[in-house]
Amino acid sequence: MKQLCHLLKLTEEELKREVYNYLQQKKKNPICKDGFVYAEGEIPILLVAHMDTVFYKPPKKLYYNKKQDKIYSPDGGIGGDDRCGVYAILKLLEKYKPYVLFTQGEEMGCIGVTKAVNKLKKPNVKYIIEFDRRGSKDCVFYDCGNNKFINYIESFGFVLDYGSYSDISVLASKWDIAAVNLSSGYYNEHTENEYIIFKELVNTINRAENMLKEYKKAPYFDYQEIGYTSHTTYDNLEAELELLVRYFGIKSKNQISQILSPNVQSRKLVLKKQRNQKDNKGDKK
Ligand SMILES: [Zn+2]
I need a labelling partner for 209 at 20 to 30 A (CA). Which of 47, 115, 127, 263 fits? Predict the structure, then answer.
């Protein structure tokens, strides 16, 4: 926890330097550019977190409530979004050698990751894990509707939830690699009342460790854009419908029949409407 508190107190530039130095020490030949730090690994799974926060300054004071295992600050928001993610990756790097990408400008519209995806060559990885989601057990896939991948991630103890956009939305579609965003123990992100439940972050790190350990058994998972593919077999369509009902909570018969229709345009319309409804509820990231 000491290391997490240290990370929370760094400015973005200080953190970037520290991440880069750490990767160099580990002899990972990091690439450090405007917008990101990247290093290849030996385990074909890419881990992603962002180094920027929405706050102008890092917190000076941090408090810890032992009973609740809660880290917070009298100064306001603490930037657990996404220093929790950076911490998770640094912890995993102590024992494992995955590919890693630390980005900047996520909160300003995924600026750093867009630079990264344009500069880097597509990594030879089986899938991508991002640590940048509030809460304790969510797994979020954005527009990636690869059912096999979703089932695989859920088998490690996560529960499917909805999100609108984050760094992996850019990476997954551009590189054609399935990607998941996992809960990293922070709450009330982007507000003065942000806090972290440390054990929830540790729990996600442990689950991610299980994924890294099992990497040999995992297949290469590709990006399959949700609801936008034209279907040739009923099997696919049924699986996708089940996913959409879970993901968007679609219940109306009319909407379901529109999604079942082979007309891609009408499917797109239904999904756009559901997505807007979810986004308006503030269910971001
Ligand atoms: Zn974030």
Answer: 115
DSSP states of 173-201 as a string?
A: HHHT--EEEEE-SEESTTSTT-EEEHHHH
The H or E element containing residue 211 is: helix 198-213
- 26 part of a folded domain: yes
* 113 CA from centroid of ligand 1 (Å): 12
Interval between CA 200 and ligand 1 midpoint (Å)? 16
**pTM, 2 dp:** 0.91
How far, in Å, from the CA of 170 to the mean position of ligand 1?
Answer: 14
- Tell me, what's the pLDDT at 227? 65
**How far does residue 187's CA lie from ligand 1's centre (Å)?**
11
Enter the DSSP assignment of 131. Answer: E
Listed residues: CB within 5 A of ion ligand 1: 81-82, 132
Q: Are residues 148 and 249 in the same domain?
A: no
Q: How far is the CA of 47 from the centre of ligand 1 (A)?
A: 14
DSSP letter for each residue of 14-61: HHHHHHHHHHHHTT---EEETTEEEE--SEEEEEEEE---SSSS--S-
pLDDT at position 269, please?
A: 74
For residue 226, tell me if it sits in a domain.
Answer: no
Q: How many Å lie between the centroid of ligand 1 and the Cα of residue 234?
A: 37
* Per-residue pLDDT tens digits for 255-283: 777 766 667 677 777 777 777 877 776 65
pLDDT in tens, 105-145: 998 999 999 999 999 999 999 999 999 999 999 999 988 88
Domains in the chain, number:
2
State the distance from the centre of ligand 1 to the C-alpha of 265, rounded, in angstroms.
Answer: 32
Same-domain check for residues 11 and 60: yes
Whether residue 248 lies inside any domain: the answer is yes
